[in-house]
Design a protein that fits this description.
By secondary structure, this protein is of the alpha+beta class. It has a domain of 216 residues: Protein Transport Mog1p, Chain A, CATH 3.40.1000. The chain contains 7 helices and 13 strands. The strands form 4 sheets. Strands 6-7-8-12-11-10-9 form a 7-stranded antiparallel beta sheet, covered by helices on one side. The protein is elongated and about 180 Å long. The N and C termini lie far apart (175 Å).
């Protein structure tokens, strides 16, 4: 009221003022700059149609491997009817093949016989008889008798690569067979007579004691006599004996472990040598693996180098002694088959000479007095 009058605020007009760019000042030529703009092309959006479950199943069926071809392997494998049918066909074919195989094996084991030869009838020549006499001539009948040829089953030979079971005392009698002879598995000379147990068994002497002297008198072994062919051998008393055929041509000496020793008698063809017979019956065997062998009773034969196969010949017959194992790759009773072969004899019992002391391997320096005593005490027949 008493002061200065209030100044009114001046309202500026709303003007659009354009400023000249700095590039045009002072008459300068402006530099024109171009802005590079990259063109961006956006692809059109493609919408994928949505199929219903039924349409999708139909599409998969049409586009699957083997679609439209029923004989395609994929379709055959997934067809349960085809699988059942093919399984039945395979079983039938397998059964037919098995049946034919067993029938063929059965036919091989059947004895083959030669057909009988019809009698040869020889008629006389038609000669003109005299009018005064009548000659009546009867036909001559000539019968030809041929031998019957029987096909025998082939021999079964053990492998040459079988090992031996444990032998703790190294006396050539395995721990498994020590009980058969009453010997100690930890002592190589159970009776202390300066001969190893295996050595005494090989020469048919008692390894478990000085008396009785002979193995056959010890009660540890028995004497078997074949009722048809009269051969004799020693075998462990606890083993079982059984003939395979009614003619006693095939006999088995078996132990409880399943191992057995087979003695078999086979016929030779007339005029055939042992080598000929061996070539015909020793399938897979070589004569080079065999050498001469003699039993304690002086019966000569052949033995295989592993001591598991022996042959003896008597006339036109071959006597084979063969060891058979189970599925094992070791032999438990090698010394037993050696004892059987060493005790083999034809007919009557032969005498055994004095004890073979020269083969005492463990005690080569036995004094002459001990040798003399042994000879004196053993100079009796078995």
């Amino acid at each position: 009221m008493f002061g200065k009058p209030e100044k009114k605020q001046q309202t500026l007009p709303n003007l659009n003022i354009t400023k000249m760019p700095d590039d045009f000042y002072a008459g300068a030529n402006p530099i024109i700059k171009f802005l590079t703009v990259e063109k961006v092309v956006k692809p059109a959006k493609i919408e994928t149609p949505v199929l219903s479950p039924a349409e999708k199943k139909l599409l998969d069926k049409k586009t699957a491997v083997g679609a439209g071809n029923k004989l395609h392997p994929i379709n055959l494998i997934t067809n349960w009817k085809f699988l059942i049918f093919s399984s039945i066909v395979i079983l039938l074919i397998g059964g037919l093949v098995s049946g034919l195989y067993f029938w063929w094996q059965y036919r091989k084991t059947l004895p083959s016989f030669q057909p009988p030869i019809q009698p040869v009838v020889t008629e006389p020549l038609n000669t003109q008889p005299n009018s005064s006499e009548i000659i009546v001539t009867e036909p001559v009948v000539v019968e030809t008798v041929l031998p019957v040829v029987v096909t025998e089953a082939k021999l079964d030979f053990p492998s040459l690569f079988l090992g031996d079971s444990m032998d703790t005392d190294k006396d050539e009698i395995s721990n498994t067979s020590e009980d058969l002879f009453g010997t100690d598995s930890a002592v190589s000379d159970s009776d202390g007579d300066k001969f190893t147990d295996g050595h005494e068994v090989y020469y048919l002497y008692n390894p478990a004691g000085k008396e009785p002297l002979k193995l056959i008198d010890s009660g540890l072994v028995s004497l078997y006599t074949n009722p048809a062919f009269l051969y004799k051998i020693y075998y462990p008393k606890t083993w079982a004996v059984g003939n395979v055929d009614e003619g006693y041509k095939d006999v088995l000496f078996s132990t409880f472990t399943g191992e057995n020793i087979e003695i078999r008698v086979m016929d030779m063809v007339s005029g055939e040598t042992f080598n000929d017979w061996f070539a015909r019956n020793g399938s897979g065997e070589s004569l080079a693996d065999y050498s001469s062998f003699e039993s304690v009773f002086k019966e000569s034969g052949f033995s295989r180098k592993d001591g598991l196969v022996y042959f003896f010949q008597n006339g036109n017959k071959i006597f084979s002694i063969i060891y058979h194992t189970t599925d094992s790759t070791v032999v438990n009773y090698r010394q037993v088959i050696k004892m059987l072969a060493r005790s083999f004899q034809f007919g009557d019992v032969n005498d055994i000479s004095t004890r073979p002391i020269e083969e005492n391997l463990n005690n080569p320096n036995v004094t002459s007095s001990v040798i003399s005593d042994i000879i004196t005490s053993t100079n009796t027949p078995l």
